[in-house]
Every structure is written in C-alpha cells, then in structure tokens.
C-alpha cells in the first residue's frame, strides 16, 4: 500500500513545525541573554547591543559549576540505578502473588503518590541528621530513592500485571528459582518500563532544588540547581550570568538525550503500550 502525501499530512507537519518553533522560543531567549553584556538592556529575544563570553567564564568560575555538575551526575546516576533495581524487585512479587496482602502493599505504595513529602520534612531531617549524612550526597540519594519508589513500583507492577507469564512458567519448569527467573526473564522484559522510569526519575532528581538546598547548602557538594541559586541576591540578580549557568548545566541532559534518544523513545512507547 502506497502512502500518499495529502493536505492533511502537510497540515499536520506545519502544525508540528509551529509547535516546535514555539517550544524553542524560551531556549532562544535563554541563550541570547546568556551572551549579553551586563549593560545590554535589550529584550531577551532581541539580538542587539554588546555580547560577551565573560558570563560563561564567571558562571563556571564563581559558581563552581564543574564540581556541581559532577555531584549532580553522581547523585542522579546512583539514585536512578538503586530505584530501578529495588523497584523491580519489589514490584515482581506484588504483581505475581495474588494474595490480599500484595494488593494492600500495592495500595500502600500508591498512597505515597498522594501524600505530600513536606509532611515528613522535620522527622526526615532528624533521621538523616542522626545518621550523620547531612552535608553529604548520600542524604540526597537516600531521599531521592524513597521519593521515587512509589511511582516506580506503580509503573513496574502495572507493566508486569499486563505482561504474559509464559516465559516465567517455562523457566520455573526448567528448574529456575524465583530469583533466577527474575534476573534472566523478568528484568529483561521490563526494559521498556525501565526506560520510562529511569528517564522520569532522572529528570526529577536532576532538577530538584529543595532537597539539595536543605541538606547540602554550605557543604561544598551542592548540586547545579543550588549553585545557580547562589547567583540570585536579596535585591539584585545577575541574569546574564544566571542564564549562562542554566545553559551550561543543561548541556549534560541534552547530550544524554542526544546519545540515548532511540532508547528514550522506545522506553516511552513501550511503557505506554505496556
């Protein structure tokens, strides 16, 4: 069957192109302001006046962005890896055991999606402080894992409940125990859902500001969001330097998407399909 190029296709492509241009407007303004001299008072989308690279040098030097990016990458990578592993191990028995307790455990995780995390702010801080983790990346990692588990268990459990069990049953007949069946059969089948979970959790952890501000301020191990906030004063803000810092700290996420875009698309498509 030959797919013909119709007016409907042209209209759809034009609409998508316009939507893409509208989406690019804030990015263009961000990059444009990041190169402007501090005395350049032209509008964000207007290309006029003096431009300089000094904003990027100032942001990198005074914001200690190199160390901040490294800290954020470490926190995000470790948190997402642990979230995926523990979430998958937790969701497997919940999805496969048809007992009443498994349903109640699933509902308990769902409860974590609707209860505001701010309700446990004080006891959590006391607990983390008692462990001696305040001021270290492990405090943020610990809270990121706890915060990401309800959503992760929900996605994995839903995916497993709608997936076929034939491969698992065949592995059990061949003598594989539950653990080996999970490692060799179930976990590889979870790859589409893993892609979705990893992407959404990584974005949430990378962009998180409040938890790193609370647990890492003044420690020298701040994340990029906290370091960017340091350029904002009580009465003034150096917006060209702030926008330069935002541009620099966006590069790792953009590079990750550039190299992993095929897996990201497959992860979203498979996760939604599952």
Q: How would you describe the overall organization of this protein?
A:
- This protein has 274 residues and is mainly alpha-helical.
- It has one domain: MetI-like (MetI-like fold, Orthogonal Bundle).
- Helices cover 74% and strands 0% of the residues.
- It has twelve helices and no strands.
- It has helices spanning 7-34, 54-62, 65-96, 100-114, 121-130, 137-161, 166-173, 178-189, 191-207, 210-216, 224-229, 239-273.
CATH H-tier superfamily? MetI-like
What separation lies between the terminal Cα atoms? Answer: 29 Å
CATH top-level class: Mainly Alpha
Please describe the biggest sheet, giving its number of strands, its sense, and whether it closes into a barrel: none
CATH architecture: Orthogonal Bundle
Task: Write the CATH fold name.
Answer: MetI-like fold
Catalogue the unreliable spans. none
* Overall pLDDT confidence: 83
- Helical stretch count? 12
Give the fraction of residues assigned to helices.
Answer: over 70%
| Overall tally of structural domains | 1
How large a portion of the residues is in β-strands, by DSSP E? under 5%
Described by the principal axes of the CA atoms, the overall outline is globular
Number of strands: 0
Structural class from helices and strands? mainly alpha
Q: Secondary-structure element order, as H and E?
A: HHHHHHHHHHHH
Produce a short descriptive summary.
This protein has helices at 7-34, 54-62, 65-96, 100-114, 121-130, 137-161, 166-173, 178-189, 191-207, 210-216, 224-229, 239-273. With 274 residues, it is an all-alpha fold.
């Amino acid at each position: 069957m030959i797919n013909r190029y119709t007016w409907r296709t042209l209209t759809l492509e034009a609409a998508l192109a316009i939507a893409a241009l509208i989406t690019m407007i804030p990015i263009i303004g961000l990059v444009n302001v990041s190169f402007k001299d501090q005395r350049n008072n032209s509008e964000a989308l207007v290309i006029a006046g003096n431009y300089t690279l000094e904003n990027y040098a100032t942001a990198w030097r005074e914001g200690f962005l190199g160390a901040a990016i490294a800290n954020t990458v470490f926190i995000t990578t470790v948190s997402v890896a642990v979230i995926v592993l523990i979430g998958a191990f937790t969701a497997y028995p919940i999805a496969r055991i048809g007992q009443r307790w498994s349903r109640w455990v699933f509902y308990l995780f769902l409860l974590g999606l609707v209860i505001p995390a701010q309700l446990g702010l004080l006891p959590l801080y006391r607990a983390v402080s008692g462990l001696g983790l305040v001021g270290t990346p492990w405090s943020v990692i610990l809270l990121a894992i706890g915060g990401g588990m309800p959503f992760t268990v929900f996605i994995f459990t839903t995916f497993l409940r709608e997936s076929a069990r034939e491969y698992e049953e065949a592995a059990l007949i061949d003598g594989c125990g539950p653990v080996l069946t999970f490692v060799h059969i179930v976990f590889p089948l979870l790859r589409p859902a893993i892609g979705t979970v990893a992407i959404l959790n990584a974005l949430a952890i990378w962009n998180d500001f409040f938890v790193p501000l609370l647990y890492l301020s003044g420690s020298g191990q701040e994340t990029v969001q906290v370091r960017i906030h340091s350029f904002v004063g009580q009465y003034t803000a150096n917006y060209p330097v702030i926008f330069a810092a935002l541009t620099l700290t966006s590069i790792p996420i953009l590079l990750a998407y550039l190299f992993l875009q095929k897996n990201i698309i497959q992860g979203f498509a498979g996760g939604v399909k599952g």
